[in-house]
Design goal:
The complex is a heterodimer of chains A (301) and B (295).
Chain A lengths: L2 E2 L4 H29 L2 E3 L5 E3 L4 H6 L2 H33 L3 H16 L2 H12 L4 H19 L17 H26 L2 H9 L4 H12 L1 H16 L3 H6 L7 H9 L5 H32 L1
Antiparallel strand pairs in A: 2-3
Helix pairs in contact in A: 1-13, 3-7, 3-10, 4-7, 5-7, 7-10, 8-9, 10-13, 12-13
Chain B lengths: L2 H5 L24 H24 L16 H8 L1 H34 E2 L3 H13 L2 H15 L13 H23 L4 H9 L4 H30 L2 H6 L7 H11 L3 H33 L1
Helix pairs in contact in B: 3-12, 4-7, 4-9, 4-11, 5-7, 7-9, 8-9, 9-12
The chains are: A mainly alpha (301), B mainly alpha (295).
């Protein structure tokens, strides 16, 4: 049983004071300052008055910025969906692999998670750019195909035009999937691994096919894991800064890039503060929705 | 949540090899469609990293075609003073961040596990906030905090000038440590603590000799997590770093803005190798731990 703090006041104080103090001073206070700034106004180059105005929020819901919010939601949504489509079979395969294979596969999925995000993005640039390896391989295939066509007496294919794989929205989505895939696979795996396998066997014995068993038995059973996988992929993807910054073009900015600009180049801190709080509210809404879905599925189950 | 899945290490043991026979109904890993998907995913995850590492030895600036083996880029990277300084800064920050985060995280975990107190839900909720708040929001909050509320003195000698970044890193790293340690504490038998106290151990002694040894695997996993989170972080550092407190990711970022040279490949390879070695050490420690327990 848990102790009440009154039973050991000194111990409680010694244990609780450092983390709580740190959290308040170096997390809650900075957040509170930003929150206060979002109701402030620039009155000079470095002075900000707390006027209690809602002007910053009003500006944030203007079509220009609303569109960026919308776009970020779409990009994060597509990323999450792709991660789920790729991640689910991978997690399924790992969960049902032999113990030794399972350990190695888990390690292989986890290792990129421990590798620096910037390095991974940089590695992806080298692969995707116009004189990168993807285009290099495609060009080689193209030229061979072209040679083959002349060989059989057809028109050659003409000069290979490198694909523009970088600095557009597709690149941002590829980058986000690349970075967030482990986030999706691991919770899915832990849900599938805990699942009661006899139910699957029963379904297969009774004549359902694999696809049907997976859709009608496995997916509902793994629903909480799927929900948490979706959440922990969606949240960082929504607030992604580095990937759209490095892989995106002029039209692939996401909210985080706009926020950064307000704090650095545009030097409009109150507006940036309002945008960051809106992003935070979106995050909280996503968490609340997930909690709601979880509770409902628990009640049903 | 998934923190458990992200941090609990797989155990690389060697169970006896099963006989090769027809795949059973649930042996999904032995069916070709899934093998293809898993294989393609691993290629997708690793191909960019492996090419990056291989081409750090390439004897060409243009970096696309293999021209021959060289270690020039490593020599160049090591002679690049600002890059080296950034690398040392990153490791130093990660080191201090790990120590502080493990202490704070362990205390937070014990507090939430052991006590009932008014406002516990609120404390628990705010402890989880740094994990879920988007990095960019925490980054700008830290920027404002260190610019207006608590300016970090400039011109301090190294490593004190890294204080602001270290503080920012601890703020998001220690809640992760707390989550991991708390998951570990769930398996602790509270009667052991009572027994120690009945036998006359003091509060401190019980904590140190009974609770801490039980927490140890959680502490190691938490430390590893804090270290990599700190080493990995770009966004929050980007907002708190000053001109003389550049970290490795920030330095690589600014190098990328100018031109991509194989020097960056070389430096990145070194960092990847450092991370892999650290992960291997962490895994080994956990494996030993579980072997000891079985023995």
């Amino acid at each position: 049983m848990e102790q009440t703090w009154k039973q050991a006041k000194a111990a409680f104080a010694a244990i609780a004071a450092p983390p709580i103090a740190w959290l308040v001073l170096f997390f809650l206070v900075p957040m509170a300052v930003i929150w206060a700034y979002s109701f402030g106004e620039n009155t000079g180059p470095i002075t900000i008055d707390f006027t209690g105005t809602f002007a910053n929020y009003a500006r944030a819901v203007e079509p220009l910025y609303l569109q960026i919010f919308w776009k970020s939601l779409i990009v994060a949504g597509i990323t999450t969906l792709l991660c789920l489509i790729i991640g689910f079979p991978v997690a399924l395969a790992i969960a049902f692999a032999s113990p030794r294979m399972k350990a190695w596969l888990l390690l292989l999925i986890m290792l990129p998670f421990w590798t620096n995000l910037l390095i991974r993005t940089f590695a992806l640039i080298a692969v995707l750019r116009e004189n990168g390896y993807v285009n290099f391989t495609l060009e080689w295939l193209w030229n061979n195909a072209s040679g083959f066509m002349t060989l059989v007496g057809l028109q050659p294919l003409g000069e290979y035009e490198p694909l523009t794989l970088l600095y557009n929205n597709t690149a941002v989505i590829i980058g986000l999937v690349y970075v967030h895939l482990p986030f999706m696979v691991l919770p899915l795996y832990s849900a599938l691994d805990r699942m009661d396998r006899s139910l699957m066997e029963a379904s297969l014995d009774l004549g359902a096919g694999h696809l049907r068993t997976i859709l009608l038995v496995v997916v509902p059973l793994a629903a909480p894991g799927i929900a948490s996988g979706i959440l922990i992929t969606f949240i960082p993807a929504l607030g992604a800064y580095l990937t759209p910054d490095l892989l995106g073009g002029t039209d692939s900015q996401m909210i985080a890039n706009v926020i950064e600009r307000q704090f650095k180049r545009a030097n409009d801190w109150p507006f940036g503060a309002a945008l960051s709080f809106l992003l935070m509210y979106l995050t909280f809404i996503a968490i609340a929705v997930q909690a709601l879905v979880q509770r409902r599925s628990e009640r049903r189950g | 949540m998934a923190d458990e899945a992200l941090t609990s290490m797989p155990k690389l043991g060697r169970p006896p090899r099963e006989k090769r026979d027809k795949p059973g109904p649930l042996d999904y890993m032995r069916r070709w469609p899934l093998q293809v998907i898993v294989g393609a995913t691993l290629v997708f995850l690793y191909l960019p990293l492996i090419t990056l590492m291989v081409f750090s030895f390439n004897d060409s600036r243009r970096n696309v075609v293999w021209q021959g083996f060289t270690t020039d880029w490593y020599v160049k990277a090591f002679n690049n003073d600002s890059l080296l300084q950034a690398f040392i800064n990153s490791l130093t920050i990660a080191f201090f961040c790990t120590i502080i985060s493990v202490i704070l995280g362990a205390l937070a975990a014990v507090m939430l596990w052991r006590f009932r107190f008014p406002g516990k839900t609120a404390v628990e909720g705010s402890m989880a906030l740094p994990i879920v708040v988007p990095e960019i929001c925490l980054g700008v909050a830290m920027l404002v905090f260190f610019a207006r509320v608590m300016p970090w003195p400039t011109g301090l000698p190294w490593p004190l000038n890294l204080g602001a970044i270290t503080i920012a890193h601890v703020s998001f790293a220690f809640p992760f440590v707390a989550t991991v340690v708390r998951a570990r504490l769930a398996s602790f038998n509270r009667e052991m603590e009572e027994a120690a106290k009945d036998l006359g151990a003091s509060e401190w002694r019980t904590f140190w000799d009974v609770l801490v040894p039980h927490m140890q695997p959680g502490l190691i996993a938490g430390a590893l997590l804090a270290f990599t989170l700190s080493l990995d972080d770009f966004v929050i550092t980007f907002f708190t770093a000053g001109p003389d407190t550049i970290t490795f990711p920030v330095k690589v970022y600014s190098m990328l803005r100018f031109s991509v040279t194989p020097e960056v490949n070389a430096a990145s390879t070194v960092l990847i190798v450092v991370t892999v070695i650290l992960t291997a050490i962490g895994l080994q420690m956990q494996n030993n731990q579980s072997k000891e327990k079985k023995a």
